[in-house]
């Protein structure tokens, strides 16, 4: 490589596979040129990130793998989005993957940018063996309370599946009146790949709904706060009143 220019070396590095990184790091680190040594350092850092991500992806399959070891064969992860907002629906999702699935970058939806969630939304739907999404609107939230409405959304999501799971991994909850074995996992959306996937499907679906509501009620700013109780949102409520999508049970002090 010593007869290659820095530009030529960069071109070679851009074309190699991950499996070749270590070989080229060993070659480039002994080059006398500082710029070439820096390429080796950057490549080593990139390799470290790849290894760390692979380790994380192995780790977030732990609960699924434990389920398979117990004899379960169709494991679904469940999560929801929208329990806290003053307006809009609560949305739940359930995702079933084949054993050992790895999707780079998948994580708790709250830890991801909107662009990354949107990207993963399509990847998850493409790679999932099965998925379902359940939506419960404002009227039912006010009638049954948000906790029960959340469970209703989760049951709707399960009912959308092509096949009923024999084991459910649930983010910090237990779905009542469901005859499926369950495991509640605190912060499960960052510890289980199927729950993380469900959190992304639920979040992206709900956000898309709130974008549509923003077109209907542009003065409320739903596109920016998604119905949560921000200063902007409370100010709009005081100035314009409540809409048909506002949760009356959440706004008793204002009504």
From TrEMBL:
InterPro entries assigned: RNase_HII, RNase_HII/HIII, RNase_HII/HIII_dom, RNaseH-like_sf, RNaseH_sf
Q: Which UniProt keywords apply?
A: Cytoplasm, Endonuclease, Hydrolase, Manganese, Metal-binding, Nuclease
Instruction: Output the CDD domains linked to this UniProt entry.
Output: RNase_HII_bacteria_HII_like
GO terms of molecular function: manganese ion binding; RNA binding; RNA-DNA hybrid ribonuclease activity
- Transmembrane spans: none
The GO biological-process annotations, alphabetized, read as: DNA replication, removal of RNA primer; mismatch repair
Q: Which EC number(s) are documented for this chain?
A: 3.1.26.4
What's the chief localization of this chain? cytoplasm
Q: Which domain of life is it from?
A: Bacteria
Keyword Transport annotated: no
List of residues binding a divalent metal cation: 79-80, 171
Q: Which family does it belong to?
A: Belongs to the RNase HII family.
Write down what this protein is called: Ribonuclease HII
Protein species of origin: Paraclostridium benzoelyticum
Specify the taxonomic lineage.
Bacteria, Bacillati, Bacillota, Clostridia, Peptostreptococcales
